[in-house]
Amino acid sequence: MEKMCGVFQVSRSGYYKWQASEASERAKRKATLTERVRWHFYDSEETYGSPRIRRELVKEGWTVSERTVGLIMRELGLRSCMARKFRVATTDSKHDLPIAPNVLQQDFTATKPNEKWVADITYIPCRQGKLYLASILDLYTKQIVGWKLSDRMTIDLTLDALNMAYAAKKPPKGLIHHSDRGSQYAAKDYRAQLERYKMKPSMSRKGNCYDNACIEAFHSILKRELIYSKPKFKTKEEAQQKLYRYLEFFYNRKRSNSTIGYMSPVRFEQLYYASAA
């Protein structure tokens, strides 16, 4: 140590003072970083893991690795929610209703908002009784443009979600609307509404879940982040309120999506229209 101090022409006391100062700065940085990791974890409703939290920190100007964020989360005992394997059949394809051709053909790319929508129904567990959620997702923005929660898996469930989406977005003629072959989507009233809205119907092939993979993936995220990582909804009213909060305020407006540059769907849509103006 004395030789090093001599080479760099510094006193031993000066060196130790500098060393203590460096250690203090590192400790301060670690403490501040730890608080930001904690904040982003709980701000995301305990859904973000180290990759997404690191992305949020980079946006704030931090230079930090995913590994460091992961170590801090481990120290704090923070763990993003995990999914349970549970599935309830929501597709009734045993019917004699007309089936639309598979126009989408697993081409999940889109060049603009309201070009391609995908729709599906999923089961929502609730202590007060079964619930079903019909969702419609825009393949370009990844936004949930329409949804409806009901205790009955009827044509009204899917129609209400479709009407909500149309009222919100007013899509141009020719939008591709893709769904599975369920009776709720093949029903006469639903097909007539698609025709009134000048949408082009598309349906998955029989028994091929990959044809509607994007909306299936969204429902998996929903189950992982909201349904199975939290206590089961006690009432249908509670389920409605929490789904509204998750879909409209967290998923659409806040949650970062890796497929659109770690932006929220609403932000991604805003940037599209701003650049097109």
Automatic annotation (TrEMBL):
Gene Ontology MF, one: nucleic acid binding
UniProt-listed GO biological process terms: DNA integration
Gene3D superfamilies, A to Z: Ribonuclease H-like superfamily/Ribonuclease H (3.30.420.10)
Limits of the Integrase catalytic domain: 109-273
NCBIfam families recorded: transpos_IS3 (NF033516)
Job description of the protein: Involved in the transposition of the insertion sequence.
Protein name: IS3 family transposase
